[in-house]
Task: structure prediction
Amino acid sequence: MKNKINNKQTFFLIVGIMMMGAVMRVPFTAIPAVLTDIAAGLGVSVSDLGILTSLPLIMFALCSSLAPGWAARLGLEKLLGLALIVMTIGSLVRIVGVPGLYLGTLLIGIAVAIINVLLPSLVSVHFPLKVGLYTTIYITMMGLAGTVGSMVAVPIVEASSWQTFIILLTLFVGLAALIWLPNWRYNHRFEQSSKATKQGSLLKNKAALIFLLFGGLQSLLFYTEMTWLPTIAQSAGLSKAEGGLLAGIFNLISIPVSMVIPSLISRLTNRQRAWFMSGLSLLTVLGLVLMAFAPANFALWMVISLLLGLSVSSLFPYMMLSFTLKTSDGQATARLSGMVQSGGYLLASVGPVLLGYSFPIFGTWQPLIYALLAVTIVMIACIFSIEKHDTIL
Result:
């Protein structure tokens, strides 16, 4: 009987982790594909809704560092369950006019920030010997759900309405919340005093600050490339449809990469991991150099998109896994994850906007490309510095 109970509990944990991975992005990443329909339905211009893509990132930056403290007071599993409930409410509220759309997106951003920070801790607490496997599972689910959500958004809205699509997203998140209910019983609590005090302030930990810089730079790379790759390709002479296809390739490559990277790098030594991740990062350098001189040749731009997508999509799984590999326990994982993701998403929320002024100011995308090259080189240096340490916290 005891084994059966344990197996049942493990089942709900695994499925719950998969579902949390699935809802980590899709409630807001599926919306841009139908933003024009939402704007038309609400009687506003698309530009008035442009901030919807930035609001979750801002919430990530503001709330990520708070999540470990909330988990210490409420308990890890309970807080994750509450985050799923808040996400469900936020998703549904979006169908109630423009104010509801903004409020709901803010609530979703808060919930996702909590899950972002605490999911690595959850894996560390429950599956300390299988961190690579379960990191692979939830990151893969995140990529699959995000891709499928973006693909089905337009057909669903065309067949019904944008409100129907959001209601379907809400039901999906609600299902994740229901599946998570049996896991509330664990409710691990972090100690608030002794250990955290002994570890000291993260702002005085040089290795943690370098990790923070890495987190920010990899986020800036991803969101800037995702935002401007189609536009830069069109400026080079490609069509709008070809630019959209390049964006799809850039995103799709993340699925197979996320399935391989965590399990692979978890078996490497620090030195091997540093060289392996730096080698993948150099693909970004190659892609950016090609981008700076590429003519209007779709095949060449497809290679560029693959190089950039392969490289940058390996960095997020590496970061998420490193939160666990470089910390001593679940509490330390949450603290490091919270600090790194707060700073990282703050950069990610402003980087694409600031770097996007390259074209109107200089009349060319070259300064943006060179800026991203510099970011990549600094990021590689951060990887080598991170891997000098067995434990950061």
Notes: The chain has 18 helices and no strands. The CA atoms of residues 27 and 169 lie 6 Å apart. The radius of gyration is 21 Å.
